[in-house]
Fold each of these.
Amino acid sequence: MDDRKAKIPLESLPQLYRDAVIITRQLNIKYLWIDSLCIIQDSNDDWSKESASMGEVYRFAFLTISALDSQDCHQGILIQRAPSDTQPMKEDGTFIPLNTLQRRRQDVIMKSALCQRAWVLQERLLSPRILYYSAAEMLWECLSCTARESSTSVAPFQPTSYEYQSNQCRTMKTQLILPLDENPSYPISPPSDWYLIVTEYTLCCLTKASDKLPALSGLASIFKRNTSYKYLAGLWEEDFAGGLLWFAPIGQGQRNEERSIQPYRGPSWSWVSSDLRIQYKTFPFQKDTYAAADIKLFSSSIEYVGQNPMGEIASARITVQAYFQKLVYEIQLGTRRCFVYNDEGKRCGSGIFDFKDGEPRARKECGGLWVMQRRMWGLEYFDQDYPLPPTYLLYFLIVERVSDAVVENCWRRIGLGWAIPQEMGFGTQQLDIVLA
């Protein structure tokens, strides 16, 4: 530590860091932030403190240098590139402009080695200016425009309508970066922005499972600034019911879909507990909702490992009031899909488990914790077995009892279910439930 405070010889740094120093000096910028140099390594206290403010580090940076194709810190970005000595020709004898052969800008960035890392998402979304170095070219991005070395055009950012499926929504990034008005009268970032962030975040990979929340804490802190919401282990108290409607889509390729045996990362009701890619059920037409069945949050108890109130969690549980029903589920063979039966033995709905069950086709008792009812629109529906959509659809958590819990009536989430409310049957009552 004392040696580094005195001086850091350039030749002592790996190649990528040396290149970053050269670029910074060429731009006449005085300061350079590199996480592994600026955060004391193997110090849990310093790590906890600095990870809590990473959002501000990138949001207030003059420029972020992004090494897209460097596999590690020993692979530099100031490299010799072979010039193209041929230009393809069309059948009519005219040449194909080189910029029409380039890969889509979005593909160059999103399919790079760097953007597969979960830690990079908040760097990309919170940096006002980014200079990307790929193996073939440089690319530029700021809040005004994008540009690239292989093209002579500069693309200005145009206002775009909000679209849940677009993880590059310009409005979302702008709202995260720009300062707030002095007295904002409404949340600047809608809950659906958070769904976008989580959906993209869970596409990425983490080396340490315990970093699941710390690697997102910068974005979480800015989102809290924009909304004044209370953070609950990856969810928000003011959007609690909507935040529970996450699920892991079927068919995740190489990802392990078995129940996780990794160290504790978070409670079962939060997407943080899953290693799979996550999506959400969203409902844009709030005026037509039926809120009588919505789950209500009574209290929460969250214990953190360090000083970061949006970082690693040691334990968490919540107490909710919701309609509860005894059910039976049956996992379909070779998948995480399940059928749900009411207390009369009649199939009343379907669901997706958060992990693969070890005993498919075996019927097991479970609980159904009602989350919300929402009107279906158009052809949107949940199950191919039903040819026409109903007026309303009920979403509920599939839960199992925690046998060794220190509190009474404690349950854990194991999946998300849906059903036509009229088919759920009788025996439903509103109870106070503890979720761990």
Amino acid sequence: MNIAIIGTGYVGLPTGVAQAELGHTVTCIDNDPVKVEMLRSGLPTIYEDGLEELLRSNVAKGRLRFTTSMAEGVPGKDIVMIAVGTPPHPVTGEADMQYIHAAARELAPYLDGYTAVVIKSTVPVGTGDAVDKIIRDANPTADFDMVSLPEFLREGFALHDFFNPDRIIVGANSERAKKTISELYAPLAHKTKMLFVKRQSSELIKYASNAFLAVKIHYINEMADYCEKTEADIAEVAQGMGLDSRIGNRFLNPGPGYGGSCFPKDTSAMAYMGRSQNIDLTLIETVLRENDNRKLKMAARILDALHGIPSPRIAILGLAFKDGTDDCRQSPAMEIIEALLKHNVRITAYDPKGMPNARLALGDKIAFAETMEATLKDADILAILTEWKEFATLDLEEAKALMRRPHILDLRNLLDPANVCAAGFTYQSVGRQ
């Protein structure tokens, strides 16, 4: 099939590369000429495991192209996907639809023949109706159907999730649109279930899913707090809970709260959608408030451990909001660092992929180390804030020799308490003695 994708961010770029790998002809459209030139030369503008290899391969095969022009990218396409950002409003938390609406207005004049116009971005219920009207007003003769096709790609694992989906949700109100999307995903049909629903239901499913997972994360964090006041161990509690098929074992890892570009944005938008309909989504509202408080509490733990030390030096491992990505947007690590910087502390940080983005946000407020070991030199405490696997392989003897005080605060429970204590460290984790 012949596809256009508008937007080359954490959704649009992996989707475009993966669709090309399935054998489709893909044109990605972005209004940033610098990004487009990088992508044309085979250089990804985000980090995703395996992305660069597939990007270069499909550009070389001619299946993947990049342009800044709607006039070049849209005409003659079977499917046009909108994958631009929907950032949260800074006050209300509602999804900002200006980029979606702008993309709709810009693509409308170039629709040529029957086209399925697909919204891949996470959008409020009713967005498909609004975009349909924008396009029809701009191009009354256009032959198209609106489709909601929410993405369920985890950052850091986007390509894996694309090729191994646990479900494909299609919000389509016409048989023609359903047939078009079925053809698009035919190469994956043997791997997953494709669920066809009303477009409005599809728009809600992504929000409802992410809000539920945010609740689950906050719940296990509350249980971890309780474990710290008792002899219970959150790792054992989570394992026992996860064996219940009704609960499952995913998203039961305690830590400094959820972050990233999806959960905070989507839970805030879901709460706003509830308020706009006079529905009391009290559970989600509580999770939003307490997840923000969680990061402040974790910063307070670090400061408490440094009580009495003048101008303490803090080593931080982890800046991205999770492992496998360079995305630092609303990262718990970044928010904890901002809270710490309000006090008289010196911070040195390291992250395998996230440092370029962290530097853009933090500037020279902290120091950045080139290696995990360099981060530790003369530190009074080590705080592990992101769950990169390489942090779990920390050489404890070397770490102790490098640090001024042997103290580790492991907010991701990556290290084995017995091993750390045997190496002579004071060790604190989350929900464990």
Amino acid sequence: MHEAAVDWSDPLSAAAYKAWHDHLSHRNDVVEPRGDNLLTLTTTSSDGVVLQESLTVRASDFHPVKRRVQFDDHEVVEIAELAYEVVPWSPAVDNWFEAITPSAGVATDIPSPLLLSRVVAVTPAELDEAELRSLLALQQLHADTERIEVVRTPKGIQVQGVVDTDERKRQIDLQLRSIPHVIPGISSYRDLDSRPSAQSEIHSLASVSVDAQPGPIEKYCEEKGWDKDECRKISYDLLNSSTIIRQESHKIASLLTEFSSNRPLTLTAESMLNELILQHGSGLTAAMQQQQRTLAISGFTVSMSEQNVTAFNAGTLVAVAQHNLDLTKELTYAGDDRSRPAESIFTDLVGSLAEIGTAASGIAAAQQHASVSSSHDPANKR
């Protein structure tokens, strides 16, 4: 505990915490109210083996009551005050202490009012909030489209991945270290280049040539007499919108599956979950609108009519989004003699986009109903 500047004669010392805090060259501080008239200062840093420390004090007199130290090996040490009060001296108080015997000459040790515990796991509610906070942080940093993975473990949330530059790595790392129970593991391509490369498993390469024919959309454009650049733009817009539709649908479905209604969430976690779903829903809507405009330019109109949405769920949304992407690939990629006419694929694509709209509406309605039900459930107000 020397690295954490914990003095066992006074482990809750604010001065010791300050000494550790002030020697850090890279640090980030967050102060949060904890209820019951408590304030918690959390300091995260990339210096040394201590990833994060927090000190909780009473807001009324700033008396320290708890200290938490998180190491880079995922171990956590918590020091908490069991009791603190000033009482008048009376004969009854003598019973709290052992008598001084003449043979001893000194008083026996007074039982410490401090409790030291080594924590090997955090609560599911804390993990929920940590995971959702990390996902929101990545979303705000526009890092959710990078090669980053959020992994939930019994000891905390590990965020791993590779980004382009060291500066980008520091930006994401600093934001994630401010979140309790989150352990960043972000690398840059420079980090990867500095590591010894593994022995290649590829022993030989075979080359083949394919005599590809124009894709269905190219034939369609030729028949319409459209410019090749315009045709390429239509192909790009369709592929781009389909890819985003698939990504956003998958993220919404993953959130709904992991944080299902069968598992109660704290109000804070539920609020963050709704915000994430709302943001991904906005991305999904924007991509759908882009594809709708592109289909209209191509001569096909999508009717987003209201349908019965009660049968749709997260799995349905992913399935129809994947079908939409498959149809776009079929339309734009190089074809052969067995390729379907573009008009047939366009027609299926129109129907696919309408199905996505219906599935998304069904999920939105279900979420709204679940949110209203949860707000009236006293067991969830914690």
Amino acid sequence: MRALMEPVLAHVPPGSRLLIVAAGPLAGLPFGALPIGSTIASAQPLLARYEIAYIPSLALFADGRSTSRRAPTRGVFAMANPTASPAGAGVSLVASVAEARIAASLASASDVRVGDNATETAVKRAPLSEYAVLHFATHALLDARVPERSAVLLTRTPDDDGLLQPREIYGLRLGGALVVLSGCQTAAGRASAAEGLHGLARAFLFAGSHAVVGTLWDVEDRVTARLMIHMYRELSAGRPLVCALRAAQLAAAGPHPYAHPAAWAPFLVMGDPAITVVSANASPIDRALTAVLASVAVMLVAIAVAGVCAAKR
């Protein structure tokens, strides 16, 4: 940390926004988790002092800023817990349904597709350019050696294999939407000598998204859902994306951030950190939070009880 950042940070006041343009092996480094402090016991993550976002290159960032964002007419298009995984992921993402519904409560005219309805075909047929946010609470497949084989995993249909891959993402028309990829390793990829990591997040940026939220390594379903719900609560208050995610991460980190770094450190913003998504027809998200969280809590308790009963047999 001292050799990498401190000579620069000495000239950057706390509270500033850092835009990270990293290449090669540094592109996959969670800069927000880098410790600052004289001892391990007193160390705090860089994220506690600064707002942090990643951009593939200054040229791409400038190009995105110069492109006007289309005013969305719809709220959130969300996909959660798809079934019939083409890659055999197998693990049901129960809590992802809650985060998708919370995302959808950000604004009216939203669309949530769950389970059998969370299909690749639905994504390709939806008017994505009309939405403010695209939220994928699904598994992801990372191929760091051949990024073109990476994929967002969705329910397959007779028309599609359920693998939404970069070559197909490039063909989507996103209209500047915020894309949230809350699955595992969605911001990871093959390191480039010039433009960050080649992977899913970068593909969505090139398809027209102004910003992508993703993860650098594997994340746990329920932990991720809590962090995403907190982020959307912040977004509903009109806060910029980088501030909303940072608040959620710091809340998850708590007073001892390095006790459980996997709960907060993998998440990052790639692209325009200042993007806001609250709309004029936003719904009361706190009321929606109460209703959705209550139903999910009952569901998780039922699953836990079923597991205990099965173990006693």
